[in-house]
Amino acid sequence: MLKTSVVLLNRRAFTFTVAALGCHACSGERDRAAHQRSRSVRVRVGAIELHTVHVGPADGDVTLVLHGGPGLDHNYLRPSFDQLATARRRVVYVDLRGHGATDAPPDAEGYTIAAAAGDLAQLARRLSDSSPIDVIGHDFGGAVALSLAATHAERVRKLVLVSPVRDGRQLRSMPQRAREALGEAGVRELATLSTPQGTLREPRDLPRLFRAVAPMWWARVPPPATIDALVRGVRYRAVADEHFLVELRAWDGARVASRVRAESLVISGDQDRTFTPAESRSVADSLPHGRFVTIAGAGHLPFIEQPTAFFEAVRSFLR
Fold first, then answer.
1. What local confidence, expressed as pLDDT, does residue 6 receive?
2. Cβ-based neighbour number of residue 312 at 10 Å
């Protein structure tokens, strides 16, 4: 989670959000219908069995959706991204290795962005044979998506990065960002929730954590009940949180982005206090075929706060 007050805030910043707003924005009937259309599929890739959730036609073109974190799973992205599914497009959510209901690697050395990207390359082959797929990654998921596109270019048609983590410098500056957004009292609250390694002490405190970091994620903080709804169904795994945090401290997204050949879109909320629009723009500038879009009136979760503008931009790009 968040390395003490720093990391906790840090990664929580880029990983949480859940489709709470999305869920509450739609009717209960529509929400249930979206979930009825989904199906869970476990896919073995090497020694890891990935947990995936499919929405849309069984043989449709694939759009892979990757969660943030580390430590979380795909559930906070649902049902927001379900709407990308069409008669010809299948949306596939994935719990990355060690996250959610996906298997953990056998040892600490298996918790790497490169290994997670390798899992996805194998998954893409299983889902789409020789056809390249579209990939969407949010914050930490953006790092994995970048790695996939850079090292397995033949697997990725188009790439969408939403408020992606750019590099380790962002993590090191997170304490100051947290103080500016939350104040000293907020930072102390985060410190009580985290271990020295930066993980959440008690999974049952996830709702409390979501509420504490809300000013980092939202342009307009929603009611506590809405935030709590985001946590439901999200499975937190501290081991993945801890090990991938170490990996992210050495991450250099600009260097990786320079090797990506796919057409790419980077999206940022204009009020994102976790990873600023300027930082996200710098990722787009590093991509050889990168574009950058800001979503007005949104923070770190533009797909929840401003879904109409966000999904219009994504659909237009993926055509």
1. 37
2. 13
- Nearest partner of 110 among 245, 207, 240, 218, judged by Cα: 240
Neighbours of 152 (CB within 10 A): 17
pLDDT digits (tens, 9 = 90+) for 188-204: 999 999 888 788 999 99
- Among 19, 147, 139, which residue's Cα sits nearest to residue 76? 19
Q: Is 277 left (phi over 0), alpha (psi -120 to 50) or beta?
A: alpha
Q: The whole model's pTM is what?
A: 0.90
Regions of the chain where pLDDT drops below 70: 1-36
Q: Is the dihedral angle over the CA atoms 153, 86, 52, 317 positive or is it negative?
A: positive
Amino acid, res. 35: H
The DSSP bridge partners found for residue 197 are: none
Instruction: State how far the Cα of 62 lies from the Cα of 41, in Å rounded to an integer.
Output: 14
Any bridge partners for residue 220, and if so which? none
> In the chain, what are the domain boundaries?
4-318
Q: Are 143 and 247 in contact (CB under 8 A)?
A: no
What's the CA gap between 111 and 169, in Å, rounded? 20
CB-based contact 311:285 (threshold 8 Å): no
Strand intervals (E) in 128-272: 133-138, 156-162, 263-269
DSSP structural state of residue 76: G
Report the DSSP pairing between strands 156-162 and 133-138: parallel
**Half-sphere exposure of residue 224, counting CA atoms within 13 Å on the CB side?**
6
Give residue-wise pLDDT tens across range 18-49. 333 444 444 343 443 444 489 999 999 999 99
Q: Please state the CATH superfamily assignment of the domain spanning residues 4-318 in this structure.
A: Alpha/Beta hydrolase fold, catalytic domain (3.40.50.1820)
